[in-house]
Amino acid sequence: MKHLLLILVIIFISGCAYRAVDIPKVQPTEISGQDVYIMNKPDNENSPNWYTSSQLATDLQKAGYIPSIISQENLVPHGAMVITDIEPTGRCFSEPLLYVLSLGIIPHVGCAEFGHRFTMSINGVNQEKEVNAGFEVKTIYGWFAFLMLFSSNYSYGIVADNLREDSVEYNLLRQEINRAWK
Predict the structure, then answer these.
(1) Dihedral of CA 7/150/153/108: which sign?
(2) pLDDT 10s per residue in the chain (182 long)?
(3) Looking at residue 166, what is its pLDDT?
(4) HSE (side-chain half, CA atoms, 13 Å) at 83
(5) What DSSP letter does each residue of 99-112 carry, written as one string?
(6) CA–CA gap between residue 73 and residue 134 (Å, rounded)
(7) Where are the domains of the chain?
(8) Side by side, which strands form the sheet with 35-39?
(9) Contact present, 25 and 38 (Cβ < 8 Å)
């Protein structure tokens, strides 16, 4: 019985907290099915790979756009939006070795990366725009992550679940694409 109680206490005090002030405040906007083409030339080592392109295409579709991944520029109609370079993700990695070795007693302070950063242009217009619809959220994992609840800057729980409920990523994507072409 003591062991069960100890396990329940450990589970209760362990968890994840994230810095809520890192999440951008965006206003919901509507998009009426604009076509967006993602260039992916397999022979060009600077072009994004298919996995990265398909992730962006999925998020663009959820944001209300009509994405297409293409490999030839002649397939893009005049005046359509074209994404040429997608910045790779993964800048936010941190090694949780001490957290794992201590079974969560030593907290792990890391971050979670969301959204996309890319270069886009309008076919026929000789001008490229940088779109930064990405952000990073500081996270804390461990036995005593619940203590972060005493700070008004932190929220308890898994950050990705809360972002999906509010559609922050998709609203930010729409907002930044609109801002780039105003």
Answers:
(1) negative
(2) 777 777 766 665 667 777 888 888 888 777 778 899 998 876 655 556 788 888 899 999 988 899 999 888 888 888 889 998 888 777 777 778 888 788 777 888 888 888 899 999 988 888 899 999 988 888 888 877 777 778 888 887 777 776 766 688 888 888 898 888 76
(3) 67
(4) 29
(5) HHHTTTSS-EEEEE
(6) 26
(7) 15-180
(8) 66-70, 35-39, 81-86, 108-122, 128-142, 15-19, 154-156
(9) no
Q: What is the pLDDT of residue 48?
A: 60
The two structure tokens encoding residue 114:
């969301």
For residue 167, what are the contacts with CB-CB under 8 A and spacing of at least 6?
28
Contacts by 24-33, CB closer than 8 A, 24 or more apart: 24/135, 24/168, 24/172, 26/168, 26/171, 26/172, 26/175, 27/171, 27/175, 28/167, 28/171, 29/171, 29/174, 29/175, 29/178, 30/64, 31/63, 31/64, 31/65, 31/174, 32/64, 33/64, 33/65, 33/66
Count other Cβ atoms within 10 Å, centred on residue 15.
19
Distance CA 24, CA 27 (A): 10
